[in-house]
Amino acid sequence: MTTAETRNPETAEAVVSAPFFLRGELIERDDLTHRSRDLGVTFATPTIDLDKAVHPRTEVPPLLNVPLAEIIDFLVETGQRLRDPHNPFVQDCIDRMSSTHILPRGVLEAQVKGAASFLDKRLLETIVEQNFPDPRALDEWIPKRDFTGRKSFVRAFAPRLIHVLPGNSPGVAVKSIAQGAMVKAVNLFKMSSSDPFTTVAILRTMADLDPGHAIVKSMSAVYWRGGDDAVERTLYRPQYFDKIVAWGGGDAINNVIKYLGPGFQLVSFDPKTSISMVGRQAFDSDEALDTAAELAAADVMVLNQEACVASRFVFVEAGEDEVDRFGQRLHDRIVAKAADSGDTRPLDRDLREQIDMLTLLDDEFRVFGKTDGTGLVIRSDEPVDFHPINKTANVVRVDSLDDAVKYVNVATQTVGFYPFDRMPDYRDRLASGGAQRIVHLGEAGPSTIGNPHDAMYPLHRFVHWMAHEDGVEAPQ
């Protein structure tokens, strides 16, 4: 039993401690116990000091007059420390999270340490440049003059943000901290029950670098159960915060929506489903078929299919026999990737029961694999009516990829496409249907630096745009 662990005296169950970080101060007490979402593991937290979690509006944000270049330099140094194999805060985080998170320890280690690559100087500068026509607006009041001679100054003013973080990807914590710092925000991070550790580990690393730095003083990370009215009724107010940046499923968003109103806005990274579209060119040769299956498997298995960009549905333009050839090869590659990751979680009972029912309908469905968590592919003529997850892909046969477009909607995030030279023929129709991103099949995971995320430029949405109008300039 580590120092991060106690035991419930009534059940003898191990209880993992999840500390808070409030504006530079680490708080670790076991005042309250909670259950993690996926595994039902008990973890303990302090009681939230609501007064300390709120930065008064009478005080300007600590980062307001810190140059953006200095902020980026500090983030880069933090990234170097996070990648240090001897960083005690990262190691402690992984030790604790391994007991609450659904992903295997090796995957978590790769995610937490790999996410530090986001804290790269050129990457961060590119993001700012893509989000703001004139990045100087983050550092100063930019003078303007319209054609009537009216003068003004405009600034991307530091906002006050609550970030509702997801539990599926520890790497989002790194990105959210960096984004909050670059817009010079006052930030309160609501951690998830699957991962109430990563955000604090990053902030502890920052505090170890410079405990008095304005970034450290601008950041707080706590946990409460989503929907806890006593906490949310107090914090979700325009007196204290400008916007909620919310990641997560329907319940997470619904908990937020009821508090929205004038002066208190939502920037939502909604739940998304990503798909793949495979044209008939994949069957031109065995080599082409192997390539398409390998690329499709790579997209299905992004973060072991826990990420929004991970493909769930693979629309294949071919006859039934050809699609079954593809389905078998896709299954073989998913199984291999699952084995390499060490993720052997079986499917949950409801999903197993639904898939077992499909195996009885041979005329409509074919199932490749078993529901034991080693990897599964379901072939059908229409998308299944449940959410494929945990190394499960639904291969949908279509006569033409035109038929697949009708299944695209505003919840479709990424479309992995093969062959690549047909992408321009479909991008307008996919955008019209609501999709937000089309990529080469096999490249759902990486993204072009600075591109829109969920059909928006997030940093541009985060800031509080303030105008100072200074009258009409006298004629010369």
From TrEMBL:
<protein>
    <recommendedName>
        <fullName>Acyl-CoA reductase</fullName>
        <ecNumber>1.2.1.50</ecNumber>
    </recommendedName>
</protein>
<dbReference type="InterPro" id="IPR016161">
    <property type="entry name" value="Ald_DH/histidinol_DH"/>
</dbReference>
<dbReference type="GO" id="GO:0008218">
    <property type="term" value="P:bioluminescence"/>
</dbReference>
<keyword id="KW-0521">NADP</keyword>
<dbReference type="InterPro" id="IPR008670">
    <property type="entry name" value="CoA_reduct_LuxC"/>
</dbReference>
<keyword id="KW-0560">Oxidoreductase</keyword>
<dbReference type="GO" id="GO:0050062">
    <property type="term" value="F:long-chain-fatty-acyl-CoA reductase activity"/>
</dbReference>
<dbReference type="GO" id="GO:0003995">
    <property type="term" value="F:acyl-CoA dehydrogenase activity"/>
</dbReference>
<dbReference type="Pfam" id="PF05893">
    <property type="entry name" value="LuxC"/>
</dbReference>
<comment type="similarity">
    <text>Belongs to the LuxC family.</text>
</comment>
